[in-house]
Specification:
The protein is built from 2 helices and no strands. The chain is an all-alpha fold. It has one domain. It is found in: Mitochondrion inner membrane.
Length: about 35
């Protein structure tokens, strides 16, 4: 499992995709919690 995780960290594209997904989730939950 650790070798898979290590190969992920060395892959910039997958890192960018991962953090983009995380950021989208955070923004969506924040916008959803706003009383509009």
């Amino acid at each position: 499992h650790t070798s898979k995780l290590r190969s992920m960290t060395f892959r910039p594209i997958s890192q960018i995709l991962f953090w983009t997904l995380v950021a989208n989730l955070l923004i969506l939950t924040w916008v959803g919690s706003q009383p509009v």
